[in-house]
Amino acid sequence: MRHGKYPFIIGFLVVPVALYCTFVVAAYIQSFQLAMTSWSGFGAIKYIGFENFQKLWNDDLFWKSLRHNLFLLILLPIVTIAIALVFAFLLNVGGSQRGGVTRGVRGSKAYRIIFFFPQLLALAIVAVIFGRVFGPDKSGMLNGLFPDSWSPWLFMADERWAMTCILVVLIWQAIGFYVVLFSAGMGSISSDIYEAAALDGASRFTLFFRITIPLLWGTIQVAWVYLGIAAFDAFAIVNIMTVDRGGPNGATSVLSLMIYRNTFEFSQVGYASAIGVVLFFLTLTFAALTLRVTRRESIEA
Amino acid sequence: MTEIFAKAEVDRRTLLRRAAAVGLMATPAVGMLSACVGGGDDDKTQQQSTGTKSAENPLGIDPKAGVEIIIFNGGLGTAYSTDVDTPLFNKKWPDAKVTFSQTEQISTVVQPRINAGTPPDMINNSGSNLMDFGAIVKAGQAADLTDLFAAPSWDVSGKTVADTLVPGAVEQGSYDGKPFAMNYSFTVFGLWYNKKLFDSKGWTVPTTWADFTALCDKIHAAGITPFGFAGANASYYMVRALLTSAAKIGTEQALKDIDNLKPGAWTADPIKKAAAAWGEIGNKYINKTFLGLKHTEVQLQQNQDKLAFYPCGSWLENEQAKDTPPTFEYAVAAYPSVTTSDQLPATAINAAAGEIYFAAAKGKNPQGGKEYIRAMLSKEAALGFTKLTKSLTVVSGAADGQTISPGLTSANDLLGKAGKDVFMGYLFDTWYKKLDDESRAAANDLMFKGGDADKFCQRMEAASQAVAKDSSVTKFTRS
């Protein structure tokens, strides 16, 4: 080991570690501390033990919000990955085979760019745009497309469908990125494998399920982790798009929105921190579970 | 771009670990929302400027100390501050430099500064992102304004500041009997309509509930939505309409009970009757799509004569100024009597001071902040404010004899007709934000989802008692 290696490494690490400690670790510790208080956000801090968590247990809105987060956690990754895989497959190997070489559908390069566009828009802009798409009267884009004889669909104003609308927006926004991610993954699968399979008379369907998916499994798991994290957030879309922010009647409330509202609107920073602590453990559990599952991955390209 | 992903593919474990790390970082990002308002030490009071009190300087400000003010930039704009108030202030105190800033996000900008012990001297706490003022008062962060209201008026000789204000103005900014906030603008609430449309159709403003529903039938037959409000973000306009009706049935006491979290306040007879009457309007005359619309969208529909009556305050005309066609002339009517045995007359209205301005108790120059407020409460500044914002102020009679706009004239007439039957309304919405939130959802439910008055009352009663029992919520009372 050469002399002077450590100062060199430390030199690199000092700034990021200091930043991480200030803005991540310290924030965590403070959240845990505040979760034990009844602090309003101003003035003196009073410790109340686990009372906030007790209150949380009895808070209907908390359970509702948690259910909505779980709804997103289950459906967002599944639907996004399914659609993105299909698109990526079509873009890369779904087209005609010429001279034994598989290629994407016609114009796949242009599609690839178009699919990525939503990723470039700020989330707030996406929310405002979809607010118009889901407009509840004839001025809304979808309602405007429906025949005049239909009574308008309420979308965000309908308790049964509001959360689904949120899901649709999140999926629309996410798909482009995963199409590109999966395309890259597929690009690294040797075309020999496809050719061999094609020679054996495998259909496109078989190619997709027997070759593409197993060889992409690792990438899919990465996507799963990212999308799971997005499902725990969803704050911006919910805050901007929904009726009565998180309504109607709490039908679209999520944990991150509850944290924000309790902190900045209800002056219950202690309570908000308690929700933050719960969210911390949920995210930790999710990340740990996902990592555990990935340890069993076996197929390598 | 694809190469980047392809390289990451080489070592999936690392990538996965990194992905998980990102996940962990997502939580502190929300955790930091609370952490960034950290601190909260009580003894961070800094050196504060003071001067010698005199007849010319009743608040004893230091004539050379600067004053920092922050103004919410919303419907009222900020020109009244930069073009009227500050020049007026500097005419008297040329050496006191006024540092002006403005924001649309009061809470995000000011709350961290208050907690760090370095607040601006005078703060305009307004907008949808305003700070919970009750909590600020309890934390001792707002300066006591008693000396300000007792000081001589800026430009009305022989009167104190309090003497020059409309009745209830000081009370409305008082917490447990002490004034901490100056509510500057004076808002008249009622049912807003297009006078030109009503005149052309021969519709007259109703005074009884039977007249109201009969007129709604006529309006409905003409293909116009009779009544509506924006459920997506402005259902509190509906809450105010409902509670105004309740106060007319059972006097303002009904609202005081609600503010004081008295058990049974929400299930009392006046509230039930008002909820039943309005629920019926919701069932029959509202456009159900309004639940998903924002206030600007509904207000625009009214400007297009697709909606007849809209419950709102007198800021409406100014807010819609650029969308109002020449065929539209704003006018306001009092809410019709609900029953024949209403305790207040049909002309009674709810008019309240709004837009909080306060001096920070722990700023560098709280007396300077107060002096700035005193300048705002001069007749000259008040008239300037009304001219610029088309909104009345709590300075009584400041805009008398001025022709400003049809809507404002209509509101002024309404005030005149109401005489002594003007009531301030309720404060629970600023005292207990959580209850305010529940009332918005409950009003939406009542008006758009079947008009069940009992459900409305029970739900609000439960929410009110939950707040009453919650020891972490600071309580206030009024009488």
UniProtKB/TrEMBL annotation, chain A:
UniProt subcellular location: Cell membrane
UniProt keyword annotations, A-Z: Cell membrane, Membrane, Transmembrane, Transmembrane helix, Transport
Superkingdom in the source lineage: Bacteria
Membrane topology, from the record: Multi-pass membrane protein
InterPro entries given in the database record: ABC_transporter_permease, MetI-like, MetI-like_sf
PROSITE patterns: ABC_TM1
Pfam families given in the database record: BPD_transp_1
CDD domains per record: TM_PBP2
Sequence ranges assigned to domain ABC transmembrane type-1 in this UniProt record: 66-290
Transmembrane stretches, start-end: 7-29, 70-93, 113-134, 161-186, 207-232, 269-291
SUPFAM superfamilies according to UniProt: MetI-like
Predominant cellular place of this UniProt entry's protein: membrane
Repressor as UniProt keyword: no
Family stated for the protein in its record: Belongs to the binding-protein-dependent transport system permease family.
Name of the protein this chain belongs to: Carbohydrate ABC transporter permease
Automatic annotation (TrEMBL), chain B:
InterPro entries: Bact_solute-bd_prot1, Chitin_NgcE, SBP
Family: Belongs to the bacterial solute-binding protein 1 family.
Keywords from the UniProt entry: Signal, Transport
UniProt superkingdom: Bacteria
Source organism of the structure: Paractinoplanes globisporus
Protein name: N-acetylglucosamine/diacetylchitobiose ABC transporter substrate-binding protein
Major location category of this protein: other
Location of the protein in the cell: Cell envelope
Signal peptide: none
